[in-house]
């Protein structure tokens, strides 16, 4: 029996048999790990509650023939407690987990950078000090950079001509100069491109100075770019509630429920 220990974030849980669960974790050193947690659905389980989505845990596993098995779990951060109380923070966190899950197709491949991005995004969302929409977009831009397809923002995606440029084309890879601009390119404002650049580079002072129209436009471009590059569409993204900061309310600006499932449908 081979044992190993790692820290990880619980991305997803699925039922297995009468009392067990398969837990999918994004770990610091072993990449994505799918492991069986035995007996966790019994009320007497020692670690069932620690292995819920959003949980950041230190766990011990032993290597099984098909799936590894969780043998010990300690909670490092219970991010779920700070997330479930607010719908916009919760849906943004669901989108973080689902994006991380989809960006890591190969189990066992080390993805330290992505792991750190996920923990940072969940911590920021659970603290509830920043606009959840900005936190999500910052995470998505950096996750796309990790995957190798962040949108070009400062130069032309096709010829590299330094910008900023007025046009943005998702199929072309981001900002495009007048010479390279495909028909049907979007025309984001300079403020929107400045916002996206600030989010990509962690410049929160610039990002939080951006107005609501730029935040909305930026979120739309990030979502379009992400969806273009994902093999499958990110199911929870359309559910993300964009907070209307300008009115101080919580009016969902682009709250469009698609399909018949909630972001957590396969997490319970
Ligand atoms: Zn160009």
Automatic annotation (TrEMBL):
Example GO biological process: double-strand break repair
SUPFAM superfamilies hit by this protein: ArfGap/RecO-like zinc finger, Nucleic acid-binding proteins
Gene Ontology CC entries for this record: bacterial nucleoid
Gene3D superfamilies: Nucleic acid-binding proteins, Recombination protein O, C-terminal domain
Key words of the record: DNA damage, DNA recombination, DNA repair
Stored Pfam families: RecO_C (PF02565), RecO_N (PF11967)
InterPro entries: ARFGAP/RecO, DNA_rep/recomb_RecO_N, NA-bd_OB-fold, RecO, RecO_C
Region called Disordered, residue ranges: 248-268
Stretches assigned to the DNA replication/recombination mediator RecO N-terminal domain: 1-79
Function text: Involved in DNA repair and RecF pathway recombination.
HAMAP family: RecO (MF_00201)
Sequence similarity: Belongs to the RecO family.
Name recorded for this polypeptide: DNA repair protein RecO
Protein species of origin: Streptoalloteichus hindustanus
């Amino acid at each position: 029996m081979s044992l190993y220990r790692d820290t990880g974030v619980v991305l997803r849980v699925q039922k297995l048999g009468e009392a067990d669960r398969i837990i999918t974790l994004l770990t610091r050193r072993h990449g994505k790990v799918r492991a069986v947690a035995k007996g966790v659905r019994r009320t007497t389980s020692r670690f069932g509650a620690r292995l819920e989505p959003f949980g950041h845990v230190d766990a011990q596993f032993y290597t099984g023939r098909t799936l590894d098995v969780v043998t010990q779990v300690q909670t490092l951060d219970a991010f779920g407690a700070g997330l479930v109380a607010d719908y916009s923070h919760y849906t943004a966190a669901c989108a973080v987990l689902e994006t991380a899950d989809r960006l890591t197709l190969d189990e066992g491949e080390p993805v330290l950078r992505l792991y750190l991005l996920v923990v940072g995004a969940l911590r920021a969302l659970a603290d509830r000090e920043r606009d959840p929409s900005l936190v999500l977009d910052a995470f998505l831009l950096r996750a796309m950079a990790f995957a190798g397809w962040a949108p070009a923002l400062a130069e032309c995606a096709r010829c590299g001509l330094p910008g900023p440029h007025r046009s943005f084309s998702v199929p072309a890879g981001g900002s495009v100069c007048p010479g390279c601009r495909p028909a049907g390119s979007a025309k984001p404002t300079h403020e929107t491109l400045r916002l996206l650049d600030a989010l990509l580079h962690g410049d929160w002072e610039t990002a939080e100075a951006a107005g609501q129209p730029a935040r909305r436009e930026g979120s739309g471009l990030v979502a379009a770019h992400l969806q273009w590059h994902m093999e499958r569409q990110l199911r929870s993204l359309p559910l993300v509630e964009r907070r209307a900061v300008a009115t101080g309310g919580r009016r969902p600006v682009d709250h469009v429920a698609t399909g018949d499932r909630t972001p957590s449908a396969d997490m319970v």
